[in-house]
Amino acid sequence: MAWNPTTNKSFENIAGVEKKAAISVGAPIAYSPSLQPKTGYHDGWDITKAYQDGVAKITWVFRCIDVIASNQAKLPMIFRRDNNPFGEVVSTDPILEVFNNTSNIGENAFAFRYRLSAQLLMSSRGVFIEVVRDRLGDPMALHLLPPQDTAPIPHVSKFVSGYEVKLPQGDKRIIKPDNVIWIRRPHPLDPYLSMTPMQAAGVAIEVENLAKVYNRNFLVNDGRPGGLLVVRSEISDEDKDELRSRFQGNLARAGAVGVIASDDGADFVDTAANPRDAAYIQMRTLNKEEILAAFGVPESIIGNSANRTFSNAMEEGKVFWMETMEPHLDLIARSFDPISDEYFVDFDTTGVPILILSLQEQSQFHLQEFQQGLISVNEYRTSIGRKKVESDIADSLLSNPNLTPIANTEKPMEDPNEQAAAGAVPGMAGGAAQIGAQMAGGQPPAGAEGQPPAGAEGQPQGQIPAGMEPIPQGGVQAGVPLAGQGTDAAQTVAAEFSPEQGAFVPLGTVEGAEDIELPASQVPSELDELEPEEEEEGEKSLPFQRNPIF
Description:
Distance between the termini: 125 Å
Mean pLDDT: 75
Structural class: alpha+beta
Low-confidence stretches: 1-33, 424-442, 455-459
Strand order of the largest sheet: 2-1-13
């Protein structure tokens, strides 16, 4: 590319073979003459400076990198079939053994992936991973190349024609682009660079370092500020050195008292500010907050939950995993896409406690939608990561409180009025159709020879099960519960129970039931046909006493 030529990123220029390069190989954007600010802070945070002045000296920088790298390294990496982010999970594959067990002969998978995340957060050139392949071309090992000695070779059409690695002996090695995985956070100005939190928090990191050094020197100086000892009379150089040695503070002279003699007296001028005047505590607090914000790590994640409720600490955990860890994991996983054309590379986060709690809250919300009839059973199962079931009722929207089907998400539901006209209950089959036919005066379907007529399993022939009442002739009434409409419809059907048949039959079919609704006084009795016997004088009969009928 004309605006980013190869000569600006070649080790030959650094070695002085041709000429001094304007931009070193993979140098951070702060080194570019066209983009480097002319005034103010413009230090470049390459990985060497990031380690020496950041990780090795500032507690917050080390802890942020450590917590992000550790959480990434302990997650299992998985494959998904069909190169689909929602495909079936594959947990056994030779490449996954490289990701999760042993990455190379010198590192296990945890150490390799920990250093990967650490370099990604510190290196302004990104992370370079060399893929070692077997004779069949399948990856068998992964090696991290030193980012301070590795750089891409720009190409006009291929973007990168190879990767140049400077060896400790001074030699160069060119690696084909197919054998290198380059992971970087996209830079807004230079596609060959990577953004890091170290650049954003560079000033805060240096101020924090200087504040710690200031406090250290203040304590070494016996807690006394720097100043000038002014002697009003003339003294020799030997006397000056003597006074300087006497009043030079250190831990060994803590609490020591010095005495000087001067004819005209002496004065002490304080030329330094004490920690209180320098707002030392407030300055360090702001530096910490700025560094944590640059890395996206809440303070409770690094182990300090003081002045926080359980709810606040939990929300900080959610923010860390959703806003910091998920983009970090996606950046790494998508960079490994070229390693397999068949599978989709992903991380298994199902075992993260804070995400489990978040999924439980989401599942509870979908359960409430299901209970209110807004989603079907299969839609609920899909939302919580379960497989769908093959059932019409599972695709139906169910209304409370009786879970009555009111719609179907996969196919149109049958018209309830047509089912009522055919003698069947909407949404039911088999026994319901038989009951509808019986209530209409027909006969149930015949069973096999020697078997009773076919009907609902475990249900007497002709008996109406609860909840299977027929639909009224006028059809389903809007705004009225279906269970109530079924009960009203059953009460309007003219039927009676036959003891001989053991089932409901049309009204008027049972013999001997013509006078069953007459008052008791009008119902004839067999006792009325017997004539009362004459009683002899002096004998009394008991009430209702009669001779035996037989």
